[in-house]
Amino acid sequence: MSEVLVVVEATREFGVKKVTCEMLTLARELGTPSAVVLGGPGAAEALSAKLGEYGAEKIYAAESEEIDGYLVAPKATVLAELVRRVQPAAVLLASAQEGKEIAARLAVKLDNGILTDVVGLDADGTATQVVFAGSAIVKSKVTRGLPLVTVRPNSVTPAPAAATPVVEQLTVTVGDADKLAKVVDRVAEQKGSRPELTEASVVVSGGRGVGNADNFKLVEELADLLGGAVGASRAAVDSGFYPHQFQVGQTGKTVSPQLYVALGISGAIQHRAGMQTSKTIVAVNKDGEAPIFELADFGVVGDLFKIVPQAAEEIRKRR
Amino acid sequence: MNIVVLVKQVPDSGADRNLRSDDNTIDRGSANNVINEMDEYAIEEALKIKEAHGGEVTVLTMGPDRATESIRKALSMGPDKAVHVVDDALHGSCAVATSKVLAAALNNLNADLVLCGAESTDGRVQVIPHMIAERLGVAALTGARKLTVDGATLTVERQTEEGYEVVTASTPAVVSVWDTINEPRYPSFKGIMAAKKKPVQTLSLADLGVAPAEVGLDGATSAVLEHSKRPPRSGGAKVTDEGSGGAQLVEFLATEKFV
Ligand SMILES: Cc1cc2nc3c(=O)[nH]c(=O)nc-3n(C[C@H](O)[C@H](O)[C@H](O)COP(=O)(O)OP(=O)(O)OC[C@H]3O[C@@H](n4cnc5c(N)ncnc54)[C@H](O)[C@@H]3O)c2cc1C
Fold first, then answer.
1. CATH value at residue A77
2. Which of A35, A318, B53, B162 would disulfide-bridge A51, Cβ 3.0–4.6 Å?
3. Is A190 a member of any domain?
4. CA angle at residue B157 from B153 to B161, to 5 degrees?
């Protein structure tokens, strides 16, 4: 079976991201998965066990200071060289900022089509995408070159399938043209040990109804009790209740968790855009007419300041 | 500084949007078309840089005839002039071809800085800035929530999952921005009047030296095979809190095995 390249998403702190395991699971349906690690010196070693656990038969490791020290371009160059050499059946990247950007450059370099935010991929290269705020489903295909797709987190259930990957070190030669955008600093802002928003299986979000930044403690508490991530509506972010990187919606993150809890969120179309494909939706809102109830599998009409603390208490009791 | 801002006209994300049944492209004809929201932040950033450092701001749009409305709207915020790439052959162009056309137009504009929104609200593909930079061989500083200009040195704070990165480059460069970067101004009455007289140059594919076969539906590198409406979610149980709403909520979560 031919090779399918999966470009690894990982963080310094937590290692291989869930979306990588999802992509490896998807890749196994299409061919033989090979993981591609693009990072600083030593990057692959820390990740290889996990990549093997999800079925990577091979790991291509491109490791150099330059890959880490410049934005995106060096990664795309290395990947393009690899694709030309191994002629894979498909290339999968994560549908997040950097994955899309690497794919963008790769598409130009190879004069190859590209599909983003893919939620399913058949062996014949037909991709499924959800568009327009989750209101339409599209089947599409790359018609020039190989299937180059970015996969939306939480679209595939990751399933382990142990393999013992062979590691191939790639020689990295990065020219001046790829060293135009220099990364001079990386600053961590994520707080606490909560799961990452787009990857979490539970997301608890607060809106304008939460009232102020301090009250977001309530949202955080419920999220922690459910092992989830915290999200926020744009109104909550714009009012300074919660940082922008947690915004869910049209101009924020798209999430697709097993459970989405909306607290004090009206359910504007732009908010729905980011959460409509969640499996189960629960809403608390004091306005019984709020549009969020049109999507909620379970809704409670009432004051979140009464309902949320009671729910938290009840969860603790059941433990 | 010579700044070009990429502006796209998109169907209003606040209303129903559809794909056409004949060729699976976005139905722009029946939609209420507006400036892609994120592009307004790019225009604002360009105007701020011009105000601080001098120079000229040009709006560049690729789109059908009716995109003129969005161009005038963009100009009413304060840019000096616009270039509109319009050609029937462009209908249905994929991202790869779009970047080719925009890069060809930029080649003639001599920009020190190309500003654009991080993504458009219709496709949400987020690939155009890097595609253009790749074609032009210039730096791409993407996903900026802050941009500082110091002579020919650009520095951005780029939002990431973990926090942010500080990235620098020299001009010429492409910078894409998120809506956290500034607060776009509203066009003044004076601005709206002035926009009517600002020069808008229209360019065809022939003017840019791009062959029609390289763009549009025929030249596309990907194709939409079919589309369907996603069945709307139907609301489930709704209870009114009469003192036990929190407990009822947990009861539901328990049945669904979340607690
Ligand atoms: C181009 C564009 C892009 C946008 N992108 C996004 C986006 O990415 N994400 C996003 O979220 N929005 C986005 N918006 C904004 C969106 O249109 C809404 O304005 C926003 O989602 C509203 O947030 P909200 O529901 O928190 O606030 P509101 O609409 O003000 O709703 C607050 C809700 O809280 C309820 N409430 C108040 N107090 C309580 C209480 N004590 N207990 C229970 N309920 C209470 C109220 O009944 C109300 O329903 C975008 C808009 C535009 C034009």
1. 3.40.50.620
2. A35
3. no
4. 150
A196 domain residue, yes or no = no
pLDDT at A135: 84
Q: Residue A132: what pLDDT?
A: 84
Tell me what the mean pLDDT of segment B163-181 comes to. 96
Which distant-in-sequence residues (6+ apart) come within 8 Å of B107 by Cβ? Answer: B136
A137 is a domain residue? yes
Specify whether A45 is located in the same domain as A153.
Answer: yes
**Shared domain check, A219 and A115:** no
Per residue in B221-259, pLDDT (tens digit) is: 999 999 999 888 888 999 999 999 999 999 999 999 999
Is the beta carbon of A208 within 6 A of some atom in ligand 1? Answer: yes
Domain that holds residue A300: 202-317
- Give the helix/strand (H/E) hosting B73: helix B68-77
| Total domains, chain A | 2
| Cβ separation B220–A143 shorter than 8 A | yes
pTM of the predicted protein model:
0.94
Q: Do B173 and A181 count as a contact with CB atoms less than 8 A apart? A: yes
Residue A123 class from Cβ within 10 Å (0-12 exposed, 13-18 middle, 19+ buried)?
exposed
- CATH value at residue A311: 3.40.50.1220
| pLDDT, position A1 | 66
**Which one, of B24, B16, B30, B11, lies nearest residue B92 by Cα?**
B24
Class of the domain covering B2-214: alpha beta
Chain A residues near residue B235 by CB distance under 8 angstroms: 293-297, 299
Q: Is the pLDDT of residue A127 over 90?
A: yes
DSSP state of B78: S
Burial class (CB in 10 A: 0-12, 13-18, 19+), B150: exposed
Query: Going by C-beta distance under 8 Å and a sequence separation of 6 or more, which residues neighbour residue A45?
Result: none
A267 Cα: distance to centroid of ligand 1 (angstroms): 6
Q: Ligand 1, residue A233: give the atom nearest the CA.
A: 11
Say whether both A172 and A30 belong to one domain: yes
Q: What is the ipTM of this complex?
A: 0.95
pLDDT attached to residue A191: 64
| CB-facing half-sphere around the CA of A93: CA atoms within 13 A | 26
**Per-residue three-class SS string for chain A:** CCEEEEECCEECCCEECHHHHHHHHHHHHHCEEEEEEEECCCCCCCCHHHHHHCCCCEEEEEECHHHHHECCHHHHHHHHHHHHHHCCCEEEEECCHHHHHHHHHHHHHHCCCCEEEEEEECCCCCEEEEECCCCEEEEEEECCCCCEEEECCCCCCCCCCCCCCEEEECCCCCCHHHCCCEEEEEEECCCCCCCCCCCCCEEEEECHHHCCCCCHHHHHHHHHHCCCEEEECHHHHHCCCCCHHHEECCCCECCCCCEEEEECCCCCHHHHCCCCCCCEEEEEECCCCCHHHHCCCEEEECCHHHHHHHHHHHHHHHC
Residue A188 in any domain: the answer is no
Backbone angles phi, psi at B31, to 5 degrees: -85, 160
Which has the closest alpha carbon to B173: A31, A9, A180? A180
Distance from residue A290's CA to the centre of ligand 1 (Å):
10
Examine the domain organization and report whether A66 and A23 are in the same domain.
yes
**Mean pLDDT computed over every residue of chain B:** 95
